[in-house]
Design goal:
197 residues; Rossmann fold; five-stranded parallel β-sheet; 8 helices; 9 strands
């Protein structure tokens, strides 16, 4: 029969990671997630309570879009199966990884911001004690206008993209919804207020 110390270790090994919180930033293309997160990062400055994690993606980085790290399919498979990923998922034909290094920040009590996906919210809640889903969205016509302004897709391709997108997220206490239709400053201030900064 294991002694008390062994029981405590076993409990810690099966428990969720905390006490810090993971803020998973999600929402449809064109909602302005990266713009608002850059604003939040600037406002928080060098606040030691916060970290911003760069996700890794199996596609080349686009300087006009999200600033992510690029990895090969082989590296994705290695990270996702070998413990190098805190969370990983597949979407739009690409693999996405949040590096396992974020776990140390959460164990140290920090708030970690990371671009995520609706696909991993359930797994994140199973793995971490405190998960906040930060849903940044906008009305469909605003999303369509922003995507068209990027010039990467035709109006028909954008309509199909928005038809496929799941723009509705369940409302619960761990989901903070920001409708990004005002100024960047307004959006950033609202995010900080809702997160308690």
């Amino acid at each position: 029969m294991p002694d008390l110390k062994e029981k405590t270790v076993a409990k810690e090994n099966t428990g969720r990671i905390g006490p810090g919180r993971l803020v998973l930033v999600v929402g449809p293309s064109g909602a302005g997630k990266d713009t608002l997160m850059e604003g939040v990062k600037i406002e928080l400055g060098d606040d030691p309570r916060c970290r911003f994690v760069r996700r890794l993606v199996t596609r080349a980085a686009d300087p006009d879009s999200e600033d992510h790290g690029t990895i090969s399919r082989r590296d994705y498979a290695k990270l996702s199966s070998g413990g190098g990923a805190a969370l990983h998922w597949e979407a739009h034909g690409h693999g996405y990884v949040l590096p396992a290094s974020l776990n140390a920040d959460i164990r140290a009590g920090r708030t970690v911001f990371a671009n995520g996906s609706r696909k991993v919210i359930g797994r994140a809640r199973e793995k971490y004690e405190n998960v906040v889903t930060l849903l940044i969205t906008a009305p469909r016509d605003v999303l369509a206008e922003r995507l068209l302004a990027r010039g990467r897709e035709t109006a028909e391709e954008i309509a199909r993209r928005l038809d496929r997108a799941d723009l509705d997220y369940p409302a619960d206490d761990s989901v903070i919804t920001i409708e990004n239709t005002g100024s960047i400053g307004d959006g950033v201030r609202l995010i900080l207020k809702r997160l308690g900064y």
